[in-house]
Write a structure and sequence with these properties.
Elements: H1 7-15, H2 21-38, H3 65-201, E1 215-221, E2 227-234, H4 239-252, H5 263-270, E3 272-277, H6 279-283
Antiparallel strand pairs: 1-2, 1-3
């Protein structure tokens, strides 16, 4: 396996035209040797006669193939190192991107999991609240039904009590009405009997009177018992009999029994009185 040269060494070699350090050292040694040789004193024996100058034709020196191969090798190594570095960097970038993508994906998944968990908690809380509200509504409805049933029972008891009280009032009122009616009827009968008795003292039957005749006379009275009017409203068919009944009322003039009567009873029963006259009543 070929180990690439460090970059600083490659740059150094390229700066020195590709000569390696051994060449540089060799040049330095040669220069030192020449310096020592030139610094010595030469004797005549040592002197050499130099012939005239010989001219050497300069030719183009061809580039050293070994140096070119070395430079090419260095260039390839440099390019390979740079390519490897680029690949390493790209691989590192790709790994970082993958790690960042994985981290972001993990964060998204964690966020989604947190959101799902929050949604699940919210849904559970919502269901618990709905269940609690449903239980509260059912309890409220049960309380409302119980309250309605209680009110209905109370109202039913109140209606029954009111019905009993109303029945009692009606019974009492009926009893009072019956008692009042009986009292009124008794009083009326008593006063009518007194009126009839007074009228009978003043009634004289005409010779034409016969059993079976009836005449009805309407009498108008005042609270003092005085007669203010008397007229026949239903004739017997016999004028003399009708006039005799009418005259009997007018001759009576006043019924003192009515003077102490309750005014309401008077107004209801005796302001206007219709009396039936029959000859057989007088004969009794």
């Amino acid at each position: 396996m070929r180990i690439p040269l460090p970059r600083f060494l490659l740059r150094l070699l390229l700066t020195k035209d590709g000569y390696p350090p051994a060449v540089v050292v060799t040049l330095l040694l040669h220069g030192t040797l020449i310096y020592f040789l030139l610094d010595r004193d030469f004797s005549a024996v040592d002197m050499v006669n130099l012939e005239g100058p010989q001219f050497v034709t300069a030719t183009v020196i061809q580039e050293n193939p070994q140096r070119l191969r070395r430079l090419e090798e260095l260039r390839r190594q440099t390019e390979a190192a740079e390519a490897a570095e680029r690949q390493r960097r790209q691989e590192a970038d790709r790994q970082r991107q993958q790690q960042e993508a994985a981290r972001q994906q993990a964060e998204r998944e964690a966020q989604a999991a947190r959101e799902r968990e929050a949604q699940a908690r919210a849904e559970a809380e919502r269901r618990q609240q709905e269940a609690a509200q449903q239980r509260e509504r059912e309890a409220e409805q049960a309380r409302a039904r119980e309250e309605a049933a209680r009110r209905e029972r109370e109202q039913q008891l109140a209606r029954e009590q009111a019905a009993r009280e109303e029945a009692a009032r009606q019974a009492q009122a009926q009893q009072q009405a019956e008692e009042a009616a009986a009292a009124i009827a008794t009083a009326r009968d008593r006063y009518i009997a007194a009126i009839r008795q007074t009228i009978s003292y003043n009634w004289s039957l005409p010779p034409s009177a016969r059993n079976g005749m009836t005449v009805v006379v309407r009498i108008q009275l005042v609270p003092t018992g005085e007669v203010v009017d008397a007229r026949v409203i239903q004739s017997s068919g016999d004028a003399a009999f009708d006039r005799s009944a009418e005259q009997a009322v007018l001759r009576s003039g006043r019924f003192p029994e009515l003077q102490g009567m309750d005014i309401s009873l008077f107004e209801r029963e005796f302001r206007t009185v219709n009396l039936l006259f029959r000859p057989e009543d007088l004969l009794r």
